[in-house]
Amino acid sequence: MEELYRKIGSLIQIVQYIEYNLVEVARLRRILTIFDNKSSVPNKVFEQAESEADDLREKLSNKTMGTVIKTIKNFYVLNASQTEELEEILGKRNDLVHHFFKENDFEEQAKNYSFMINRKGYLGNFLTQAEKYNSFLVDLIDQLQEEYDDIE
User: Fold this and answer.
1) How many domains does the chain have?
2) What pLDDT is attached to residue 35?
3) Distance of CA 88 to the CA centre of its chain
4) CA 78 to CA 140: how far, in whole Å?
5) Please, which residues have CB within 8 angstroms of residue 118's CB and are 6 or more apart in sequence?
6) Are the beta carbons of 130 and 18 closer than 8 angstroms?
7) Which residue stretches of the chain have pLDDT < 50?
8) Calpha distance 2→142 (Å, rounded)
């Protein structure tokens, strides 16, 4: 059971990182959108975009992951398969947090080896998926940050 609890804790942590990183992607894209099809903008416009981006980050940091995903879609920074995987991660996270223990009687099944292996496998696969997605977001943030640094 301890291994299950560790995996669940790791999953909740990594999905929170995904959520945090999505907010950062939205903030950077909000600033960078003012440069779409332009090589420069007035300083005042840039400062306003930075202020709005900071406000967006603050607002999104208090919203659900589903709301953050809806917002990120508006910036067209993720392709269809990346968005689909993100929504899959959200669904799995919601299932884990809201239904996993209700639907799986671990007390009764603790000695059922195949049941426990199956549940551990599911959590392990989900953890791998979430870690890969978070790494993708970190790389995306690095790319957007480079674009941002080039305009400052």
Assistant:
1) 1
2) 82
3) 11
4) 10
5) none
6) yes
7) none
8) 35
> How confident is the model at residue 1, as a pLDDT?
72
- The answer to whether 148 touches 32, Cβ cutoff 8 Å, is yes
End-to-end CA distance of the chain: 51
Whole-number Å distance between alpha carbons of 113 and 63: 39
Range of the domain at 118: 2-151
Furthest-apart CA atoms within the chain: distance in Å:
67
Those residues whose C-beta lies under 8 Å from the C-beta of residue 22, and which sit 6 or more positions away, are 60, 65, 68, 69, 72, 86, 137
141, 26 Cβ separation under 8 angstroms = no
The whole model's pTM is what?
0.86
Which secondary-structure segment (H or E) carries 111? none
What is the DSSP code (8-state) at residue 104? Answer: S
